[in-house]
What we know:
This is Spore coat protein. The protein has helices at about 5-35, 35-65. By secondary structure, the protein is mainly α.
Amino acid sequence: MLQPMTAKELEYVADSMSNEDLLMKQCAAVVAASMTPAIRNCCTQMISMHQQHYDSLMHAIQHHQQVAPTQPQ
């Protein structure tokens, strides 16, 4: 059986989600500002990759909620 994440692990996941969100925003800014199709395409692909990372981290949090105790131990 899987163990719930510790508070430190949850903090790490939350920080990672914030980082992925920031990376998506930075890539979107480059897409908006760039006139070079290759750069726009690359950054668009990077946005998709970071969104997948964000979604995986969100899934981990949701899974944690399913296995975590509802009352403090």
